[in-house]
């Protein structure tokens, strides 16, 4: 039982019920796929996800609770797989409209550029919301900050906060002509308007800031009844309460839905029930959504199903310091370039690849946009500074300073660091092979996308004639029938 004092100026005469369904960070995974689950005996892979099942679960809830279901998307939806990237997000539109979301916010949606994203938004049957996304030319909000809907006899205000990092650490074309704030300063005014002018009974925030930032935001901003969190791929089994705000986040890749059932009386949430619903074979399919998914994927199935090698090691990106998926990617990069070290961004997205056959689809799930491999020259001092900056952006004590995914991925490097140390003082020792890194020495390194070695670091930056997909294919071919070994090797170690 969850009880709270009533809100001033809101008069509900009876208990009302509403069910809020959250999808976050589905990353374009239209079909079912392997998903990683942790057990007492370690990690296991099981099938989960698929928009036909997502649609079926939502249809079932709507049948059970007529007029009382609110379906919200926290973003990272229309980018992340070959079919979505190939269509620049377009194939998602009919599927999302068929499911019938009520609102969304965004992050990787901007990967196609703001103009293309606006075209997608114009084709959706529901609003894209962001209190913190501004046009650089005139300073106006590019999207509505909120919308109001009625569900279960309640007026519900929905406020959106897009990812603040789009114009800070993502490639420049993501944010051309657009700037992003944290949204914290704007949020109170919109909440006040929703309550005093729009007369809402419930304020729901859909956010893509990330769980640590959203916890702090909720502690500093009053009046948020529910905050649906995104970006950091947390599987939250039980709602978190901060400053009278109920916060949930629901995994990634469409493998989970958050189902939050609320009872509201006299303007207050008086009871709730929450399920982190695994979208597995027990969830019903929607035939209508399934037909649209098949239509979207059919042109690509033959190309994506080609087997190009095998792996001894299950590949995934679910660990914060090192991932087997990026060990495979960066081993491929080093093999293609002969570089002693290779770096990539600490991406979170990319569904697991089981031990055994590796397909073209798996490669594009690892690297949805096939960028050229790049090389540059880094001094040892620059390398340490780059990694210190990355560690701060990952583990900053102030959540608002956290800027993105996991720790930068490495190959050919061994680094020991202290998580708890202050900014700039975390790294203890670094080795290249068996040799300790020397500050004045210059090292030839390879990287994937400019997030691997950010601008401002290194000299002689060059894009090569080989892309990441080709490098992975060649590495798989060289491994032969035995398959590649991408086992954890302790490249980045917390001590």
First-last Cα distance? 42 Å
| Count of beta strands | 26
Q: What CATH architecture label of the largest domain applies?
A: 4-Layer Sandwich
CATH superfamily of the largest domain: Metallo-dependent phosphatases
Mean pLDDT: 95
CATH topology description of the largest domain: Purple Acid Phosphatase, chain A, domain 2
Number of domains: 2
Number of helices: 12
Give a quick account of the main beta sheet: strands, pairing sense, barrel closure: 6 strands, mixed
Cα gyration radius (Å): 23 Å
**What is the molecular shape?**
globular
Order of the strands making up the biggest sheet: 7-8-10-11-13-12
Task: Describe the protein in words.
- The protein is α/β, with parallel strands linked by helices and 495 residues long.
- The chain folds into two domains: 16-298, Purple Acid Phosphatase, chain A, domain 2 (4-Layer Sandwich), CATH 3.60.21.10; 305-494, Alpha-Beta Complex (5'-nucleotidase,  domain 2), CATH 3.90.780.
- Helices cover 24% and strands 29% of the residues.
- The strands form seven sheets. A six-stranded mixed β-sheet has the order 7-8-10-11-13-12, with helices on one face. Strands 5-4-1-14-15 form a five-stranded mixed β-sheet, covered by helices on one side.
- α9 packs across α12.
- The longest helix is centred in the last third of the chain and has 16 residues, at 380-395.
- Mean pLDDT is 95; it is low at 1-12.
């Amino acid at each position: 039982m969850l009880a709270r004092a009533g809100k001033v100026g809101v008069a509900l005469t009876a208990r009302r019920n509403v069910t809020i369904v959250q999808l976050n960070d589905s990353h374009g995974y239209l079909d079912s796929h392997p998903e990683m689950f942790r057990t007492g005996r370690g990690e296991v892979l099981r099938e989960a996800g698929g928009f036909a099942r997502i649609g079926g679960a939502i249809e079932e809830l709507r049948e059970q609770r007529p007029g009382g279901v609110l379906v919200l998307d926290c973003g990272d939806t229309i980018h992340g797989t070959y079919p979505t990237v190939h269509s620049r997000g377009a194939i998602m539109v009919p599927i999302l409209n068929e499911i019938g979301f009520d609102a969304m916010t965004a992050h990787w949606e901007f990967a196609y550029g703001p103009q293309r994203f606006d075209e997608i938004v114009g084709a959706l049957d529901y609003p894209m919301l962001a209190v913190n996304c501004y046009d650089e030319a005139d300073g106006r909000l590019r999207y509505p900050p909120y919308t109001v809907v009625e569900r279960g006899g309640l007026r519900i205000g929905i406020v959106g906060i897009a990812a603040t990092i789009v114009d800070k650490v993502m490639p420049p074309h993501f944010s051309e002509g657009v700037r992003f704030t944290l949204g914290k300063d704007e949020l109170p005014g919109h909440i006040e308007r929703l309550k005093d002018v729009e007369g809402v009974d419930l304020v729901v925030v859909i956010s893509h800031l990330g769980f640590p930032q959203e916890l702090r935001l909720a502690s500093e901003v009053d009046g948020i009844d529910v905050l649906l969190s995104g970006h950091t791929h947390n599987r939250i089994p039980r709602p978190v309460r901060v400053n009278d705000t109920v916060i949930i986040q629901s995994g990634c890749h469409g493998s989970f839905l958050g189902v939050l059932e609320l009872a509201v009386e006299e303007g207050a949430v008086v009871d709730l029930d929450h399920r982190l619903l695994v979208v597995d074979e027990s969830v019903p399919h929607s035939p209508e959504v399934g037909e649209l998914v098949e239509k979207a994927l059919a042109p690509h199935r033959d190309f994506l199903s080609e087997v190009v090698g095998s792996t001894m090691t299950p590949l995934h990106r679910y660990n914060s310091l090192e991932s087997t998926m990026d060990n495979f990617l960066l081993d491929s990069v080093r093999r293609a370039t002969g570089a002693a070290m290779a770096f990539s961004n600490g991406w979170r997205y990319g569904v697991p690849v089981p031990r055994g056959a590796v397909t073209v689809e798996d490669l594009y799930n690892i690297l949805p946009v096939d960028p050229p491999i790049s090389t540059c020259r880094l001094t040892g001092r620059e390398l340490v500074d780059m990694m210190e900056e990355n560690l701060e952006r990952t583990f900053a004590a102030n959540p608002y300073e956290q800027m993105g995914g996991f720790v930068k991925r490495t190959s050919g490097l061994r680094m020991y660091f202290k998580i708890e140390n202050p900014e700039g003082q975390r790294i203890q020792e670094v080795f290249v092979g068996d040799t300790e890194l020397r500050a004045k020495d210059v090292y030839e390194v390879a990287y994937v996308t400019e997030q691997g070695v950010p601008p401002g670091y290194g000299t002689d930056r060059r894009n090569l004639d080989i892309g990441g997909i080709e490098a992975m294919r060649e590495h798989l071919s060289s491994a032969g029938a035995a398959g590649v070994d991408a086992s954890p090797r302790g490249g980045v170690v917390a001590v």
